[in-house]
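are you around this afternoon, could really use another pair of eyes. what follows is a protein written twice so to speak, once as letters and once as structure tokens for the fold. i want to understand how the tokens follow from the sequence so walk me through it. anything you notice is useful, everything is just below.
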Amino acid sequence: MAPAAVPVSLPTASTATALTNAGIKRDLANVAVSHKPQLDASKLTYEFNKNPKVVAAVDDPVRRLQNSTTDHMITAKWTEANGWEHPKLTPYGPFQLEPTASCLHYATEAFEGMKAYRGVDGKLRLFRPDLNAKRMNLSSVRIALPSIPPEEMETLIKEFIAIDGPKWLPDPNTFIYLRPAVIGSGAALGVQRPREATVFIIAALFPPLDKPTGMRLLASTEDMGVRAWHGGHGASKVGANYGPTLQAQGAAGARGFDQVLWLLGPEGRVTEAGASNFFVVWKNKTTGATQLVTAPLGDRIILDGVTRRSVLELARKHLAIGSTEPRAGGEDLEKVEVVEENFTITDMIEAYDEGRLLEAFACGTAFFIAPVNGVQYKDKEIEVPMPMVMPDGSRAGRYGGTIKVWLKEIMYGVVDHPWGVVINERGPVLPK
């Protein structure tokens, strides 16, 4: 069965890019005709943890370390010679890797960030897991790892949280962070396609990362480098996107900033905020129309974030000019033009100086919808309004804050919505 995939818009700017794109398309297609065993979630085997861990309280400081995990993990091994082995659910524990493993030398690693939620109705949910599974397939193939059938990956994620969710999410209005990943685990040096890979799924305890006062961003300068570039791999969720940014992130943190606002090129194109997508709301300079603006996907510089996609879809349905489906909380907001196009730090400064900048926010799984209160670019400080008081007393912009409320209602079961996928949980019990 050919794996489903989000549409791929592949540039052809250079011979190297064209070769990469051809390889990606070939690998996505070859799985449909392969006679080797494919990943099959129905073949999952079970070994439950006989020494289960203690669940840390929601306010336990250990959660801030982000290294406490649940009782189990799922793994599945692939080899070039024999295809996929049966996936296994086992007690959480370390891997055994050879020092020559591809992932340790050539960054052959891709991952997803997801959350499972305990709703106000007591039910356990995932948020749009099909999108994470499809994106992980594309990211894996981008770095020459095997195609991972999204339907099977999604089923394994659901089964994992059905086992560990009941114990580790006992209380309503709580979440746990999920990390599906794939690594080149084969033992071979030399710059070559990995001949072995391992998929795994784990879950970790995270604290809420919301900042009641909003985030302060430091816009990057040329000496800080760039996060991604045209024809690169910014659209894939691969480890190689993140390691090179950590020095700049640490330096920004030491100066009191929460994240780096990554700019690209001499014109200062705005791309992402840290590891999150970035939005502004402003009045268009020419027409005066209120616009919700974010960078486009077409040049594959930014990530097709699940939260980003959800923000755009909700805005187009409930807030866009011409929309006819008002939703509680958005009735008093002026209708907006939803725009995916490039803009620069100069555009932001100009909008601020002219009083046209209404709000800004970052969005992603970890930070969710994170309002921005300010951006520093060289010696220029952009102060961003945050006029809305949220239900928890924090502040936000009116559009980002409203969409944040809508998304939380879906994630925690306040409203019934197809994006909130209910899990048939059972704990460490074999399926019937």
